[in-house]
Amino acid sequence: MSKDAFRARLEGTAAAIESLLDRLLSSSPMPGEIARPPRVLDAMRYAMLGGGKRLRPHLVVETARLFGREDEGVLRAAAAVECVHGYSLVHDDLPAMDDDELRRGKPTVHRAFDVATAILAGDGLLTLAFDMLADTPTDPDPAVRIALVLALSRASGLGGMVGGQMLDLEAEGRFAADGKPIAGSEEDTLRLQAMKTGAILAASVDMGAIIGRAEDSQRNALAAYGRALGQAFQVADDLLDAEGEADLVGKATGKDAARGKATLVSLYGVDGARSRLRRLVDEARDSLTAFGPAGDALARTAVFVAERQS
Predict the structure, then answer these.
(1) What's the average model confidence in pLDDT over 156-171?
(2) Mode of pairing for the β-strands spanning 106-107 and 102-103
(3) Domain count, the chain
(4) Of residues 241 and 81, which shows the higher confidence score?
(5) Is pLDDT above 70 for 279?
(6) Within 10 Å of residue 257's Cβ, how many Cβ atoms?
(7) Rg (CA), the chain
(8) Taking the CB of residue 75, how many other CB atoms lie within 10 A of it?
(9) Which of 288, 308, 254, 258 minimizes the C-alpha distance to 66?
(10) Which of 81, 76, 94 lies closest to 126, judged by CA?
(11) What are the start-end ranges of the H helices in the chain?
């Protein structure tokens, strides 16, 4: 798949997700809801609309496409992942967490609104994600909907993203008596990153396989792809923080080094991290061999993750 063809697919999914989220985050209450307070709704829309590559939805959509599944239900599952991702960014940016002022080149939600509204907006996005997955339009088979809920829950909860964020705070020395960063081993760093970042990316691939009714062998191959892709994404992220320009990245850079935080760049150096990134891209692409040309979009995604500038 050419770079232009891939970009068209990525942008097409992003546009479809934007449209769906715009509808889901309208002012009209859904059945069973009482009312949608404007301020928190505005904050949720601010967090979710008008920006982002929509990489995680893209992974859901392209994986489901391997099995001939292309419909509104797939987009709903993809939008659910994006809502969890959006909630995590809103909460990560809070003063009690990373205390960031910029996200995607604009003020973070707690800066544009206030801290209390940002917390509630994140809570709203998280619950909306599982609302979508549990609802019949996502898939007529309740067993599939349950499997989707389970996959996203496990990836985003205590043993996944939430737990990874706690490990990240601990590594920064937040709870140490002297407040100094804790020097993590390679194993510690890889575990933290697999939980905080990699788990949701891998789950996006798995959810596409679930809704596409993949066979066990196909799902296993895609799980290997998802793990390698998640690691590649984090290595690229560490390199962007070390070398990227804030204007291009859309947020502050150089934060990891300033905090004395262990990353794959600090462990391996820039050249070592780049070498690891190339190996992970190859590993991700090799995992798709059984799918032939149908897997080209996912293979190209691994390259895109490694080459991204934001």
Answers:
(1) 95
(2) antiparallel
(3) 1
(4) 81
(5) yes
(6) 13
(7) 19
(8) 23
(9) 288
(10) 81
(11) 3-24, 38-48, 55-65, 72-92, 109-112, 115-134, 142-156, 161-171, 186-193, 199-211, 216-243, 246-249, 255-258, 264-286, 296-307
Q: How far apart are CA 94 and CA 113, in angstroms?
A: 12
**Residue indicated by tokens 């949608």:** 36
Q: What are phi and psi of 96, to 5 degrees?
A: -75, -15
Whether residue 259 is predicted with pLDDT greater than 80 in this model: the reply is: no
Q: In Å, how far are 75, 199, 239, 265, 277 from 257, measured between CA atoms? A: 38, 24, 11, 10, 20
Strand partners, 106: 103
Q: Is 111 helix (H, G, I), strand (E, B) or coil?
A: helix
Give the span between the Cα atoms of 14 and 22, in whole angstroms: 12
Look up the pTM and report it. Answer: 0.93
Contacts 24+ apart (CB under 8 A), 98-102: 98/255, 100/251, 100/252, 101/252, 102/246, 102/250, 102/251, 102/252
pLDDT at 256: 62
Give the residue from 112, 96, 94, 95 showing the smallest Cα distance to 45: 112
Domain membership of residue 178 as a residue range:
3-307
- CATH number assigned to the domain comprising residue 40: 1.10.600.10
The residue type found at 259 is R
Q: Which two tokens stand for residue 176?
A: 């140490």
Plot region of 52 (φ>0 → left; ψ -120 to 50 → alpha; else → beta): left
